[in-house]
Amino acid sequence: MTSNDREGSANWLGETDRMLGLLNDGFPVVEKMDAVAARAAVAARARPVDNLEDVRSAEDVQIEDGLRVRIYRPWSETSGACPVILFMHGGGFVFCSIESHDGFCRRMSKNTGSVVVSVDYRLAPEHRAPAAAEDACAALSWLRASSDELGLDRDRILIAGDSAGGNLAAVACLMARDRGAAMPVGQVLIYPVIEPDFETESYSRYETGHFNTRAAMQWYWGHYLGGEALPEPEEYVAPLRAPTHAGLPQALIYTAGRDPLCSEGEQYATTLRAAGVQVRHRNFPELFHGFATIPNFGPANAALEMLWRDIDGLFGLHREAQA
Length: 323
Prior knowledge:
alpha/beta, Rossmann fold, eight-stranded mixed sheet, 20% strand
């Protein structure tokens, strides 16, 4: 490593620590609130979206049972069928929405040249597990059935999600496989929530002081489950518990080293590989939970550039397999 490399690394680490300090000081202590108050407190922190021009259009559409999606179309969209990313936002199953992740979805569409379809799924505690995952699966089925009408390539559909949305993306793949439905060509899980186990190595290391905390995760899971017991089948809430993971689509899993969820993301990558699923797992040791959706956060830029390339690679691999 050169002196310039060392200096750059130190600068990024310093900026990461400064951002963590701001988040630790300013993010609501949700575990001391009810769901309504937590949603209001999180929404109050939202910044105006400053990248509206990243996409050609963004349209809200009501699909089955009143479920709403927002469809982002890139400037680079051609007359042919376009690849598509079905996106499930994070927020601990309790808060956030297609509004909170609007800027991220615009960046994703711009940088991958894909149509992005963001799902406004039902939230806990009003809708317990696995309601949100059922919405993800319903949106996946709708998207495939509507692909011709929307000008989308039904054979190049990825499902993606960050945090709790990563859980929903993973579970939707399990549901589609088990129900004999068409699956996406890939799953993109960004620091995903996988398992309500709060005693992993990363929970022990990063239970406090790194934005996402053990107490907050216990609160999220408590609202989603409505108690300690998981509904049956358990894997439709905690995807690691599936009897088999064989036959699932290829996976791209991103984890953050300074995140209590890091261990479970790593374990899911290992479990999928053992079942014969093609997996690309990337871990970013100095980053923390939520890094991907923080606008203009320098230390995350390289990770996001890699994410866009990896997503393009998933689409490209599928094109090669069809050729």
